[in-house]
Amino acid sequence: MDPITAFVIATLMMLLNGGILGLIHRDLPEGLRPAAFSWRLGTLLVAGGCVLLAVQHALPPGFVLPLANAMLMLGLTSYWRALRQFDGEPESLHLLWPVLVGSIGIWWFSAMRPDLAARVLFASATWMVLFIACARVLHRGGGSDPARSRRVLLGLFGFLASFMLLRGAYFAAAANSVADILDGRSWMNMATPLVAAILPVIGTTAFLLMCSERIRRQWEHAASTDALTGLANRRTLTRIGSERLRRALADGRAFALAVVDVDHFKSINDRFGHDVGDIALRHVADTLAGHASPGTVPGRQGGEEFVVLLDADPAEATREAERLREAIRNAVFQAGDQRLAITVSIGVTAATAADRHLDDLLRRADRALYAAKTGGRDRVVLA
After folding, report:
1. For the residues 209-236, what does the mean pLDDT come to?
2. CA atoms within a 13 Å half-sphere pointing along the CA-CB vector of 97
3. How confident is the model at residue 169, as a pLDDT?
4. What pTM was estimated for this model as a whole?
5. Residue 339: beta bridge partners?
6. Torsion angle of alpha carbons 350, 356, 361, 366, nearest 10°?
7. 238 and 219 share a domain?
8. What are residue 295's phi and psi, to 5 degrees?
């Protein structure tokens, strides 16, 4: 197989992957489509650059070589942009600087002062810079996105950057024995198009897996959180609470829960409307989340009722509930032109050896909550 055939095979593989990405583009969530489009554009640009390199002997070198390399570099820049869009980084024209500098250098050593070694060194250095830039984006976002596909893609960009370093060194040492980048006597010329195809093929697969992981985490988040408040929903509270109760009974640990109910919530809805009622619920949720102790899990049970899971004994749980009650009472919030204050009643209970299910604690806490309501509201009662 000669380098031209290798370039043709690599191009066909790139076009196939670009086509597949185009077919599934509309099925991706709206937030991922810009990144997917940029990645697809990058694949098509790299494929176009490979086609021009394969037919370079049929066109003037001062024209085809700068154009082919510019397309390749724009393709890599589009990959860079796709990764930045995936991580929510802002758009920036600074991404075009490597393309501009690299294109000028390659044009100079192709048209004005033909020099194979200098041209390849310039191209390899520019590509290496772009590969490293992509790797940096992946590394920066790795803390918040632990997907294995991200690590695979990071390793891939690291490998490609290393290969570009090797390619530049090879041509610097062997320029006199290699006619051009299509000279089939050079193993580097055979390897380059095949290595170039790794990113559009394997890289596209890894990128799609990153998208899949992002979608899976979004679904899991939606299934485990309350849409209005962002707190844990009933399903998550039941799962976490049941697990903590099981550990408490097995290991003798302290565990308690508190049921929090907004006082006079119906009158808020009747006087100010349901939109203000929703704002009030979010205000309570934010206050609970912001003032809860480490390890405490607040969640929304439904309606105006919240549940707080605590790794605490009865005395500690009561103190924590009092602290949360006071925080809500003192946190006046703005709803349009209205400044409103909210109070809550809280029923608290702690796990005992007789408890077998989380519902046992919830029933006791509900009875304590009823006592707090009938006792005048804005108070904490321990059952």
Report:
1. 90
2. 6
3. 82
4. 0.76
5. 334
6. -150
7. no
8. 90, -15
- Asked if 248 and 300 count as a contact pair (C-beta separation under 8 A), the reply is no
Residue 350 has pLDDT above 90, yes or no: yes
The C-alpha atoms of residue 353 and residue 283 are separated, in whole angstroms, by 36
- Per the structure, the complete domain to which residue 265 belongs is given by 234-382
Q: Are residues 178 and 311 in the same domain?
A: no
The DSSP element (H or E) to which 171 belongs, if any, is helix 148-174
Q: What is the distance between the alpha carbons of residues 137 and 85, in angstroms, rounded to a whole number?
A: 10
Q: Is the pLDDT of residue 281 over 90?
A: yes
Question: Three-state SS for 296?
Answer: coil
Residue 229 belongs to a domain:
no
Burial classification of residue 236, based on how many CB atoms lie within 10 Å of its CB (0-12 exposed, 13-18 middle, 19 or more buried): middle
Query: How confident is the model over 88-111, as a mean pLDDT?
Result: 89
Residue 333 belongs to domain with CATH number: 3.30.70.270
**Beta strands, E only, the chain:** 256-262, 297-302, 305-310, 333-335, 338-340, 344-350, 380-382
Is residue 147 classed as helix, strand or coil in its secondary structure? coil
